[in-house]
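Let us work through a complete example step by step.
Step 1: write down the sequence.
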Amino acid sequence: MLKSDPHPDNNAQGVAPGRLTAFHLSEARIGLDGQTVNRTLNHCLILNAIGLCADPVPSVTPWIWAITKLDYAGQYTLDTQIFPTYYVYEDGTRIPSKTVFQGALELFISLNAESQRKASDIR
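Step 2: predict the structure and record it as tokens.
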């Protein structure tokens, strides 16, 4: 019922320019209902009769993304959005030392729909 909003580049994968790393991009955000709630709570100037945001503004909900890069030696790096916390698993086992903790929630809320990663931006 409450579907997510996948980014057009979600699940993009390939070889980064320079041909030194391969990458995989995962990217989505909450669906339209959740985006309405986010706008109502965090960015709204005008409420309708039932208390939902009625601002005629573009989407303000940032994208949540993670980019995994794998180099020629089999080493990987993880580049992530500042929210949420990301857990890294190797061979099905969570590796606590590689957990990427979320940044301050206020920083995430202050972002907008332009906060995204495109496959063409990956280097």
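Step 3: interpret the result. The longest helix spans residues 32-42.
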